[in-house]
């Protein structure tokens, strides 16, 4: 991709939960990084219609939405909560899915896949589709642009109170986004958010969670909209690839008065709000993104060297030594409200996984005893491979 133009993202969401998040991109008043490059997929026509009904009047032609922005796949009306059936549906219609994506998004530099990990459709199909694109199995020689596309996944953890099967799905989905069946890297970057961590353990306000996710994605994508003083998606995946640590979570603080607060303090406030339970001190990679009013940047009230200096001071204060690059990106308007995103990567996954491993093991033990509830269609060997791949990834990251 050229450094002289915006990074062009395409959003590909699968399943009802992923579609619920992706539908909010249609409502953004300004989104030059994405524009209308949005696709919602599902195995159930009614669920797709529910997603379309959430889309605001920004696109009013339902036929146009259906043709260009929605795709039904598979021969079943839904995958239930079985990620095996979600993957199977994607396998059945792989050519139709990939051809639609390639023909509709052939100007994109990066794909942002969105899925909730507790369900079956998105959790089953997204890791499979990413793997197929990454392996080049669906890319013809006439489409060389696909060779440089970067694949980023936004994966949402179920509420802690949800049934065992959803946590079994979540652990499996994380493993499959990180590693393919052969143990190689799958997605170039995996972004994680946990419902209960964002909304409280007893919460159920999906809209609130989704708004926070959209805000973090806007900040991340915003870093690639300008050609001066920014990092871009290529930077976000190159350094993690060198470390073998490519799982991340956003940490966000917004609308902080730049006339009052120091940048180092803003980083502290953002670090208090990661999207999953985690210890910031275990991060190996951090990408700070500071978004400030264009007038503040033009007037020199906030500069790229100051962002780097504050980032270094923040690291020293917390006895951190991490890889990463900082970014200063403008937003329209005047005033002094500054937004900060910290992309925290390579951290210890234990605080997140500890909420789900007991439930995962319960479903796995049931499968070993011949009870397939929660693991329909799966073999013990496949379940073990998923677990081994996740353990191997964690061993490499967490020592």
> What is the CATH topology descriptor of the largest domain?
Rossmann fold
Give the helix tally.
16
Identify the quaternary structure here: single chain
The tally of beta strands, per DSSP, is: 10
Q: What's the alpha carbon Rg, rounded to whole Å?
A: 20 Å
Rounded to the nearest angstrom, the distance between the terminal CA atoms is 35 Å
Our estimate of the beta-strand percent is 15-25%
Structural class: alpha/beta
What do you see in this structure?
- The chain has 16 helices and ten strands.
- The chain has helices spanning 15-22, 45-54, 62-69, 83-92, 94-104, 121-135, 164-178, 195-199, 206-222, 233-243, 263-271, 294-298, 304-317, 350-353, 357-368, 380-398; strands spanning 9-14, 38-42, 70-72, 110-116, 150-157, 189-194, 247-257, 285-293, 327-331, 337-345.
- A ten-stranded mixed sheet has the order 3-2-1-4-5-6-7-10-8-9, with helices on both faces.
- Strand 4, helix 6 (121-135) and strand 5 (150-157) form a beta-alpha-beta unit.
- Helix 7 (164-178) crosses helix 15 (357-368) and helix 7 (164-178) crosses helix 16.
- The two termini are 35 Å apart.
Secondary structure elements and pairings:
Elements: E1 9-14, H1 15-22, E2 38-42, H2 45-54, H3 62-69, E3 70-72, H4 83-92, H5 94-104, E4 110-116, H6 121-135, E5 150-157, H7 164-178, E6 189-194, H8 195-199, H9 206-222, H10 233-243, E7 247-257, H11 263-271, E8 285-293, H12 294-298, H13 304-317, E9 327-331, E10 337-345, H14 350-353, H15 357-368, H16 380-398
Parallel strand pairs: 1-2, 1-4, 2-3, 4-5, 5-6, 6-7, 8-9
Antiparallel strand pairs: 7-10, 8-10
């Amino acid at each position: 991709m050229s450094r002289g133009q915006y990074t062009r993202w395409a959003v590909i969401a699968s399943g009802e939960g992923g579609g619920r998040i992706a539908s909010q991109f249609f409502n953004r008043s300004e989104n030059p990084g994405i524009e209308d490059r949005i696709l919602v997929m599902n195995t159930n026509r009614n669920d797709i219609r529910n997603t379309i009904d959430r889309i605001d009047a920004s696109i009013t032609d339902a036929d146009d939405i259906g043709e260009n922005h929605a795709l039904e796949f598979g021969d079943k009306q839904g995958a239930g909560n079985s990620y095996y059936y979600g993957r199977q549906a994607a396998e059945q219609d792989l050519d139709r899915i990939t051809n639609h994506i390639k023909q509709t998004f052939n100007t994109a530099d990066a794909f942002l896949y969105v899925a909730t990990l507790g369900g079956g459709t998105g959790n089953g199909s997204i890791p499979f589709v990413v793997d197929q694109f990454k392996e080049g199995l669906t890319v013809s020689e006439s489409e060389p642009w696909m060779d440089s596309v970067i694949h980023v996944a936004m994966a949402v953890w179920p509420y802690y109170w949800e049934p065992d099967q959803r946590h079994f799905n979540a652990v499996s989905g994380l493993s499959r986004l990180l590693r393919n069946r052969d143990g190689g890297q799958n997605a170039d970057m995996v972004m994680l958010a946990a419902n209960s961590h964002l909304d409280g353990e007893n919460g159920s306000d999906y809209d609130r969670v989704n708004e926070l996710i959209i805000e973090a994605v806007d900040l991340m994508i915003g870093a690639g909209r300008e050609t001066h003083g920014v990092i871009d998606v290529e930077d976000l995946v190159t350094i993690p690839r060198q470390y073998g640590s490519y799982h991340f979570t956003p940490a966000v603080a917004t609308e902080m008065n730049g006339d009052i607060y120091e940048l180092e303090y803003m980083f502290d406030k953002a670090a208090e709000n990661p999207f999953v339970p985690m210890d910031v001190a275990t991060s190996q990679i951090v990408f700070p993104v500071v978004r400030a009013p264009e007038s503040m940047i033009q007037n020199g009230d906030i500069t790229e060297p100051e962002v780097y200096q504050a980032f270094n001071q923040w690291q020293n204060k917390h006895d951190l030594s991490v890889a990463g690059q900082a970014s200063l990106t403008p937003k329209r308007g005047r005033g002094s409200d500054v937004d900060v995103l910290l992309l925290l990567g390579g951290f210890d996954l234990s605080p997140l996984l500890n909420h789900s491993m007991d439930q995962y093991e319960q479903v796995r033990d049931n499968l070993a005893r011949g009870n397939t509830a929660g693991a329909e269609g799966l073999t013990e060997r496949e379940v073990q491979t998923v677990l081994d791949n996740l353990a191997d990834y964690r061993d490499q990251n967490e020592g």
